[in-house]
Amino acid sequence: MDLTTTYLGLNLKSPLVPSAAAPLSENLDDIKRLEDAGAAAIVLHSIFEEQLEQEQHELHHHLSYGTDSFAEALSYFPEPETFHVGAQTYLEHIQQAKAMTEIPIIASLNGSTLGGWTEFAQQMQEAGADAIELNIYNIPTNPEQSGAEVEAEYVAIAQAVKSAVTIPVAIKLSPFFTNMAYMAKQLDHTGIDGLVLFNRFYQPDIDIDELVVRPNILLSTPQAMRLPMRWIALLFGRINADLAATSGVSHGRDAIKLLMAGAKITQVCSVLLRHGIPYLSTLETEMRHWMEEHEYESVRQMQGSMSQINCPDESAFERVQYMKGIQSYHPDALSMIS
User: Fold this and answer.
1) Rounded to the nearest 5°, which phi and psi values hold at 169?
2) What pTM was computed for the model?
3) What single-letter DSSP state applies at residue 72?
4) Whole-angstrom Cα distance, residue 304 to residue 224?
5) What residues contact 79, with CB distance under 8 A and at least 6 apart?
6) pLDDT digits (tens, 9 = 90+) for 37-67
7) How far apart are CA 209 and CA 211, in angstroms?
8) Cα 285 → chain centroid
9) What does the pLDDT look like over 236-278, one tens digit per residue?
């Protein structure tokens, strides 16, 4: 049974790749456990643009404090630019992860503005990362900023990072664009190597007892995979960039659905947080059993087989399917299920 696939030009032993969740990849022992459980590659936890900028400002403050008091103080320290601030720990983590594993290590950079992306990306490449995943976590709230301006920022970031490094670059997108297909095509024109669909924006909650806004992370469920599955099926064969699916993979069958839609890999996170790292091998076993039962010899054989361009009914992922779904719903079905 051949589970091998390619993603971002990397040869992977399977399509199962742990995504950029801090608890899964912050610890080197856990990274090794992920590899032993069958991870084909690992997307490291993200380093945040704001975190790096804050640490750099703090160091600059401490190094420059009092330098106006005595002329001699100006020569006490080198310029702050010579320090590897904030990123150093992350870069060392990349180096150590590479040294102890035989699978690709993908660095993750989480930011919202153009500034700083290229510098951090270059440092990641120098540290030995096999690829970079750009996690653009930007929630536009300015009512004066148009959708076209928001899209232009994404394209500018992709162009800047692609021109700064030689290793493959993927970009993790949110689904909140006026025309997702157009946005994907624009990013594809930049030469980006992959699109990861989709980023989950964690919504805060309101504590009505303490009257404060609190973070509230909800792990994904299998229902969450419907949105990336639909868009991967629509985009497969229409852009050059590889497509990666993330959100909702809880069983081997879920991964197979996403591969049939056209994904090169399926990223997993929530299911590993629920059941533990060893569950990754369970997902692979379930995939193998299903493929054997349905006489599939390889993952490549199924990739894109149920995408829109390969589906007998080209409207299956469009508006007509929505209408069919509404018309076929019967309240009695719920009582039958329960």
Assistant:
1) -130, 130
2) 0.84
3) G
4) 20
5) none
6) 999 999 999 888 776 666 554 434 333 434 4
7) 6
8) 24
9) 999 999 999 998 999 999 999 999 999 999 999 999 999 999 9
